[in-house]
Amino acid sequence: MIHTKVRCREITEADVDAVADLLTRGFVGRSRNYWIQGLRRQAFRPVPDGYPRFGYMLDNDGEPVGVLLLIYTTRKDGEETAIQCNLSSWYVEPAYRNYASLLTKIAQRHKHVTYLNISPAVRTWPIIETQGFRAYCRGLFISVPALSRAPRWSKIEVISQHTKQIEGLSDEETELLTRHARYNCLSLVCRTPKGVFPFILQPMRIRRGFIAPPAMQLIYCRSAAEYAACAGRIGRLLLRLGKISVIVDSNEPIPGLVGIYTERRGRKYFKGPHRPRLADLTDTELVLYGP
Fold first, then answer.
1. CA torsion angle 94 97 103 108 (round to 10)
2. Over the stretch 89-116, which tens digit does the pLDDT of each residue have?
3. % helix / strand / coil in the chain, to the nearest 5?
4. Which domains are delineated in the chain?
5. Partners of residue 56 on adjacent β-strands
6. pLDDT tens across 39-62, in order?
7. What is the pTM of this model?
8. Is 229 helix (H, G, I), strand (E, B) or coil?
């Protein structure tokens, strides 16, 4: 069948309901509320000037028949400001698959943008690599933080979405923690004699074929070493919440932590000028759309 009215265009707020309907049809197991919540969060978050708020869609006479969600973020890379784009959910109705390349082509056209694919299915890894993407994270470390010794004279604080100031943190990190608390993440500060350390965690949705005890995903820390140093204190808090393990993006076992490293899952890819930092999944689909 020839579809003469199909075009690729930017998604607008007026398209949100129809896009949610399309994604609900395309992703078995994801409810419409899941998509609506994420799209609403995208609607209200800051986006770098000149970039799409939601992504792109294939428009057939006013109706979406394909969609690629994009999440643009401004990142600091040393003294430089970098633009990062999380290539999120992609779906095209079977009858319009011939037009699918229009979405990917327009979505990745900026050479100065670093594109991320943080949730690729294992079967797609070879395909992604042929598209020029490189793995920056090869696996996961499944840590059991309660088995680590808590640092002496330390304490842990839960940061709420209404927190205005956090002693020992910059305004930028304070806003990062409170913003992610609004996204239903668990934002924490660990205070030790050696410093004040921020962390963001999120309950992890365990996918089929991946075995782990009740788990949290580490969304943000400054470094794996800081997480290892505070793991004992964090683990004791998580036990009270019924969580046993914390999943950490890693390329190797993490010194100072009790757990298991695996490369069966967790690979994450990037393409562009700036290699993403491990243990920083802030403002990505994992946060905006939930586990």
1. 120
2. 999 999 999 988 888 888 888 889 999 9
3. 30, 30, 40
4. 7-136 (3.40.630.30), 140-266 (3.40.630)
5. 10, 68
6. 999 999 999 999 999 999 999 988
7. 0.92
8. helix
